[in-house]
Amino acid sequence: MKYPNSNKVYSKPKESAAHRGMSLEEDINRTNRYYLNHDLAVIHKKPTPITIVKVDYPKRSAAKITEAYFKLASTTDYNGIYLGKYIDFEAKECESETSFPFSSIHAHQIKHLSDVIKHGAVAFIILRMSAYNKDFLIKAKDFIEFYDSAQRKSLPYDWIRENGFEIASNYFIPCDYLKVVERVFGLQGDL
Q1: I want to staple 24 with a disulfide (CB 3.0 to 4.6 A). Which of 39, 93, 140, 187 is the partner?
Q2: CA-to-CA distance for 117 and 86, rounded, in angstroms?
Q3: Is the Cα torsion angle 86, 87, 89, 91 positive or negative in sign?
Q4: Alpha-carbon 16 to chain mean position
């Protein structure tokens, strides 16, 4: 970026891989707060289980974790209840214009989604295609079927557009996925 009357050029720092997908996560968290505050659903982000190894105690009120490790592989990002149904989903953000790489989702997450489907859960993936500024809900069942039979290492954008369901947004609800859940999974609500 070049500011007027200046020869200096400023560029936005590159986003680290650790923070990729955070804008989608922030939008879903804000959406979930809206749903909770309006008594529509109770859906929360699952914390990632960690083992704390070292803590720095400069003073008791300012303890800081300085080293920690993941205890075990986490399952999916979000779960909760809506209209009496258990909801479980993973949220992913993708920069590609052509496809979503399977390497972005772990085998244990796919197994978890498959397991909760067997027990009657409403399970899906919210996929943000950043290049198009679009969010899609993909039924976990459809994703798993494609994944299991794929002769490729990614989910093509054309497949996402044809089989996914675009999620609307507005200022108050930046990722209004429950309207899509109602339509796609046949639930009846007051959204």
Answers
A1: 93
A2: 10
A3: negative
A4: 17
User: Is the C-alpha dihedral spanning 125, 126, 128, 129 positive or negative?
Assistant: positive
Give the predicted TM-score (pTM) of the model: 0.80
How many residues in total does the chain contain? 191
CATH, residue 124 = 3.40.1350.10
pLDDT tens figures, 73-119: 678 999 999 999 999 999 999 999 999 999 999 999 999 999 999 99
What is the rounded CA–CA span in Å between residue 18 and residue 62? 24
Domain membership flag for residue 6: no
Mind giving me the DSSP string for 27-96?
HHHHHHHHHHHTTS-EEEEPPPPEEEEEEE-SSGGG-EEEEEEESS----SEEEEETTEEEEEEEEEE--
CA–CA dist 179, 113 (Å, integer): 21
